[in-house]
């Protein structure tokens, strides 16, 4: 068991301030069978919180309204989370979401001919060893490389490029599982790295529903099932459902973004 400290700062600088804007923030983790949120806070500069709510996937959401004419928008969150290593096994959960929701492909996960050919010969069944094999095959087929993809890159596009970041590895893994009719979902969260405390982005991995075990996590980018270094923040069908920040800003010119995430063990 680890007690992790998280400090996450996102700053937008505008040459010409926005006329208006609304943003949904999904940066607040939740307590579950693997983690317990001890405390968490969100502070804003240049924006006002309108309300907080749970979305359709039970993610914590802060809806903020951006103040017109500002030069800087700063979103900061910090807190402490106690995490237990269960080898990625979350188990069964009480949910109103039927499993078939997690079997339907989305715009980001929808496979093309490349992924279909790749996944066709895989003996993917309801066996946990099959998913570990899939994870290793995807990892060996792609190179982890920044700035070759973006948040709108589909699984098929990343697969063709042969490179991407954790989001792309995750989308490809999910696409393959859903091709075989297996429930799989996208997870956004924090990861404590061994030799790098300050990070520039949140992490992403997948979870698959396995009969007899329930939900099990797979971090394809790192070839490992999540342990006590991982904090789950949001889940969804793909990145768009679990995006840390999502919304509309009007009247912005020359936006500059900087992100700093500090994760340490207490």
Descriptive terms for the model:
266 residues, alpha+beta, Immunoglobulin-like, C8orf32 fold, 2 domains, 5-stranded antiparallel β-sheet, 5 helices, 18% helix
What does this 3D model show about the protein?
The structure is a single chain. The protein is α+β, with helices and mostly antiparallel strands. Helices cover 18% and strands 43% of the residues. It has helices at residues 113-120, 128-141, 155-161, 166-179, 239-242, and strands spanning 2-16, 20-25, 35-45, 47-54, 60-66, 72-83, 89-91, 143-144, 163-164, 184-191, 198-199, 203-210, 214-218, 230-236, 245-250, 253-265. It has a five-stranded antiparallel beta sheet, with no helix packed on it. 39% of the residues are buried. The mean pLDDT is 94.
Low-confidence stretches: none
**Which percent band covers the strand fraction?**
35-45%
Which sheet architecture does the biggest sheet show?
5 strands, antiparallel
CATH topology of the largest domain: C8orf32 fold
Overall number of domains: 2
Cα separation of the termini: 11 Å
Tally of alpha and pi helices: 5
Shape: globular
Give the C-alpha Rg.
18 Å
Oligomeric state of shown chains: single chain
Q: Helix-strand pattern, N to C?
A: EEEEEEEHHEHEHEEEEEHEE
Please list the strands of the largest sheet in the order they lie side by side. Answer: 3-6-1-16-11
Number of strands: 16
The CATH class of the largest domain, by name, is Alpha Beta
Tell me roughly what share of residues is in helical segments.
10-25%
The CATH architecture assignment of the largest domain turns out to be Roll
Sheet/helix structural class:
alpha+beta
Q: What value does the average pLDDT take?
A: 94
